[in-house]
Amino acid sequence: MHILSRIDPHGKDFRILGVSYDCRMIMDGAVRDLTGKARWKILMLLRSRHAFDIHSIVVQYKQQVLSLIEYRTSALYHATTTVLTQLDKLQDYFLKEIGGPQR
Fold first, then answer.
1. Dihedral, CA atoms, 32, 36, 42, 43, nearest 10 degrees?
2. Is it the case that residue 5 has pLDDT exceeding 80?
3. Is 75 a residue whose pLDDT tops 80?
4. Quick one: which of 96, 38, 85, 82 has its CA closest to 62?
5. 21 close to 14: Cβ distance less than 8 angstroms
6. What is the DSSP letter of 96?
7. Phi-psi region of 19 (alpha: psi -120 to 50; beta: other; left: phi over 0)
8. pTM: predicted TM-score of the whole model, two decimal places
9. What are the φ/ψ torsions at residue 26 (nearest 5 degrees)?
10. What pLDDT, on the 0 to 100 scale, is given for residue 30?
11. Which residues, in sequence order, are CB contacts of 68 under 8 Å at separation 6+?
């Protein structure tokens, strides 16, 4: 049995459709897993950038990385802002590397 609550949670972390949830709904584990998977895909995209133009790299980013992130929207919705900074930094890194607009 799991009780999802920030004040009085009960139960261990669990997975639904490949997304990790924790009972406190902080979602740090889910974001950490996602950041690791997305980092690997971004690094592979950046390694191949010499063979593609910027437009193609962005299209591949949308297909391979953004879809990975959007699949976990239910977990990211509950994540705290401080936990999401890991993912924001990774996306900012990608934009910096391809010479795109930055915050």
1. 140
2. no
3. no
4. 38
5. yes
6. H
7. beta
8. 0.78
9. -80, -35
10. 84
11. 34, 37, 38, 41
